[in-house]
Amino acid sequence: MKKLKSYPNDSMVFLESMTQSVLITTAELDSPGPFIVYVNKAFEEMTGWKREEIIGENPRILQGPKSDLSIFHNLREVLANGKIWEGKTVNYKKDGTEFIMEWSIAPVFDKNGRTDKLLAVQNDITENVLIENQWEKLRKGEQKRIKEIEEANIKLHSLTEKQKKTIDLFVKYVPESVVKKALSNTNEDIKEGVELDVALIFCDIRRFTPIAEKLSPTEVVRILNTYYSKMADVIKMHNGVITQFTGDEIFATFGAPNPIKDPEISSVYCAIEMIKKLDEINLDLKDILPEEITVGIGINYGPIIAGNLGSDDRLTYAITGDAVNTAKRIESLTSDLPNAILINESIYEKTKDLVSTKPWGELKVKGKEKNIMVYQIIKFL
Description:
38% helix, 8-stranded mixed beta sheet
């Protein structure tokens, strides 16, 4: 191939002093052209080619396997319009080393306005591209981590909602305080019992069997649900815990599973409020009740054993002890006393200045030598 002489111009001093690589070629773009007619010192340093080696060569000598030739698809059109073409791709140094070159090619016009030469300014942007790629990789990695965290949060929220629904459903069958205590315990101590002094209430609907016989099953369920719901609100308001619903009977404790202040007083105030709540219950159910609902309430105070009883597969929270049996016996004494509240002596001593009472009589309790004195609350102060 014929070597071309260096391109003489008064601007050569300026081009030689530039830190950017400069390459000037002939104007023809069709193969075998164009041909290099000038390169500056910065080009030599960037590519490793000496000017005496490169002048007369086609600039395609800088291309290689990884060069993206598609970037030149509009080169001819852009230059024909007298505009500057820009692009970047992988190029190769004389020793075959890859680097990423950013090209800016502009037409150089002769005195007649025709394209005489092509001037290319080149920058080695390899380091910049590597940094950009690293940042992009980090950005995508961060986006991936953010997405993973968001997905994990969604799963955690879903799991939390499911657990909340499970617990909400669970507390409909087991007292909420019992559930919270069980969740705070380890598997080793979940079955451990505890001895507590508590007040116990048994509340039973009087003549419920003959009332239920006159109603449909749906009506019976409605009565019990209304009764249980409103009574449960009262018990909870006075820091009581419903231990069991059995038929038309409510068994509640004050001071278990967690101790409370003055359980005797809380239980009495609760019982009084339960009697008052009957007016609301009877009003809500008057369309189906053949007669008004009345109850009998027995309250006892004493030591009990509280804990989760059962097997590894099935547990139930239970309150056991003589105090429970005695509370039930006291409640049974109200069978002929509609809306009566009977209490044992320890409850009486704690609340005698708060409510008006009268002695009901003594109760013989199996297994005990002394009878138990029982009092009836007759006036609410």
